[in-house]
């Protein structure tokens, strides 16, 4: 399979590093890949799904430590003139 692509899980912050090592962007799949004949040892850190999940969980932990996200909770705006609405019917109509 000389024409096969090995898709990589490259975080956006590391795209330039992957590109410098020879990774290519597949616009149709919206993923980076190691082209056929490339030295795969250069891309080992991006060959599994684990780094992507670790990045997402670390972002969640960071956000959770600074901002508490409560689903289904009623909150009150600090600005007394703030009017929240569902988006179906604006309150000023």
Protein model, in words:
The chain has two helices and three strands; from the N terminus they run βαββα. With 93 residues, it is an alpha+beta fold. The chain has one domain (1-93). Strand 2 (24-26) and strand 3 form a beta hairpin. The N and C termini lie far apart (62 Å). The relative contact order is 0.14. Residues 50-60 have low confidence and may be disordered.
Note the main attributes of this structure.
3-stranded antiparallel β-sheet, alpha+beta, 3 strands
Low-confidence stretches: 50-60
Category from helices, strands and their pairing: alpha+beta
* Number of structural domains: 1
- Based on CA atoms alone, the radius of gyration comes out at 22 Å
Q: How big a fraction of the residues is strand?
A: 5-15%
Extended strand count: 3
Q: Could you tell me how far the N terminus lies from the C terminus, measured between alpha carbons in angstroms? A: 62 Å
Give a brief rundown of this model.
By secondary structure, the chain is of the alpha+beta class.
Task: Write the topology of this structure.
Blueprint: E1 6-8, H1 15-20, E2 24-26, E3 31-34, H2 50-66
Antiparallel strand pairs: 1-3, 2-3
């Amino acid at each position: 399979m000389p024409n096969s692509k090995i898709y990589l899980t490259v975080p956006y912050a590391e795209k330039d590093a992957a590109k410098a090592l020879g990774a290519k962007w597949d616009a149709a799949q919206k993923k980076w890949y190691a082209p056929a004949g490339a030295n795969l040892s250069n891309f080992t850190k991006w060959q599994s799904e684990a780094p992507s999940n670790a990045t997402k969980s670390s972002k969640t932990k960071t956000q959770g430590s600074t901002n508490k996200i409560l689903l289904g909770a009623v909150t009150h705006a600090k600005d007394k003139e703030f009017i929240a609405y569902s988006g179906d019917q604006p309150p000023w109509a």
